[in-house]
Automatic annotation (TrEMBL):
<dbReference type="InterPro" id="IPR029036">
    <property type="entry name" value="P5CR_dimer"/>
</dbReference>
<keyword id="KW-0028">Amino-acid biosynthesis</keyword>
<dbReference type="InterPro" id="IPR000304">
    <property type="entry name" value="Pyrroline-COOH_reductase"/>
</dbReference>
<comment type="function">
    <text>Catalyzes the reduction of 1-pyrroline-5-carboxylate (PCA) to L-proline.</text>
</comment>
<keyword id="KW-0521">NADP</keyword>
<keyword id="KW-0963">Cytoplasm</keyword>
<comment type="similarity">
    <text>Belongs to the pyrroline-5-carboxylate reductase family.</text>
</comment>
<dbReference type="InterPro" id="IPR028939">
    <property type="entry name" value="P5C_Rdtase_cat_N"/>
</dbReference>
<dbReference type="Pfam" id="PF14748">
    <property type="entry name" value="P5CR_dimer"/>
</dbReference>
<comment type="pathway">
    <text>Amino-acid biosynthesis; L-proline biosynthesis; L-proline from L-glutamate 5-semialdehyde: step 1/1.</text>
</comment>
<protein>
    <recommendedName>
        <fullName>Pyrroline-5-carboxylate reductase</fullName>
        <ecNumber>1.5.1.2</ecNumber>
    </recommendedName>
</protein>
<dbReference type="InterPro" id="IPR053790">
    <property type="entry name" value="P5CR-like_CS"/>
</dbReference>
<feature type="domain" description="Pyrroline-5-carboxylate reductase catalytic N-terminal">
    <location>
        <begin position="5"/>
        <end position="98"/>
    </location>
</feature>
<keyword id="KW-0560">Oxidoreductase</keyword>
<feature type="domain" description="Pyrroline-5-carboxylate reductase dimerisation">
    <location>
        <begin position="161"/>
        <end position="260"/>
    </location>
</feature>
<dbReference type="InterPro" id="IPR036291">
    <property type="entry name" value="NAD(P)-bd_dom_sf"/>
</dbReference>
<dbReference type="Pfam" id="PF03807">
    <property type="entry name" value="F420_oxidored"/>
</dbReference>
Amino acid sequence: MSEAVAFVGCGRITRAVVGGLVSGGAAPDTIRGVSRTGAGARALGAEFGIRAATSVREAVDGADVVVLAVHPHETPDALRTLAGVLAGGGPVLVSLVASCRTEAVAAALPGVAVVRAVPNVAVAARHGVTVLSRGPHCPPEALTAARELFAPLGEVLTAEEDLMETVSALSGAGPALIAHFARALARAGVGQGLSADTAGALAAHAVRGTGALLTAPGATPDAVVDRVASPGGMTEAALRTLDDRALPRTVQQALDAAVRLSLGRLLAGPESPSVRS
Ligand SMILES: NC(=O)c1ccc[n+]([C@@H]2O[C@H](COP(=O)([O-])OP(=O)(O)OC[C@H]3O[C@@H](n4cnc5c(N)ncnc54)[C@H](OP(=O)(O)O)[C@@H]3O)[C@@H](O)[C@H]2O)c1
């Protein structure tokens, strides 16, 4: 990545993206960050050597890509400030804001090419996945610029804007859901007498190794299950218990709840004071 990138909002997801970019070889002096209080930007400056700007204007000056990474309820404010400094076009605007359509961002920033991106936090380890959707009147070059930004951090896919709330629930939240399962698995191991360290390491390696198997060309979850579970064996006993307790239905309900919340925020609009990521 040789282009200059400015991050407006320097919280958890920006830290993950910047961490992945810098560990992948991006020059820290091509990255600037700005945040509301300055605390987030200064923390990233100290951790990764990026430039902590003291104003949005300073951060975006000369940037090729501006990444907006604030919460939905903080977005109207941030967009008003950006509208003042990006008047008439300039850099590509990549919005990571949940529950915020590209149409809304593009309407606030006339003449600016807008791409929406949903990275997951695994971009920090450069094993992430980022899903992109294109805003109205967004030229293909803008999508290419967004793709090039996230490509060093893992897979980059595209989706229709209408599906981005579902993408956020499955993919953005995905690492938390998988970590939640890993925690439950480790606690179950502790319940059977393993030390917390050993059980935690075994669960973590199960997740890591399964990820490698599942992302191999042609792999499917069914095939991975088949490689482990022999008829009448202990894995089958464990899987049957999960299915008897309706794990697939519970996972469906969990995803439905996340999507419903995100769609509800869309309908409420970003000005709603109750909107939170
Ligand atoms: N976390 C994830 O895995 C993930 C994944 C995909 C998308 N997202 C989305 O990314 C967005 C940010 O999430 P997060 O988890 O990174 O939030 P976070 O950790 O709470 O960080 C929010 C950041 O926004 C800054 N900020 C607030 N208002 C601002 C303004 N007007 N101008 C400039 N900076 C402002 C804050 O500044 P201070 O540091 O000064 O307080 C803080 O640095 C959300 O919309 C979220 O849904 C998150």
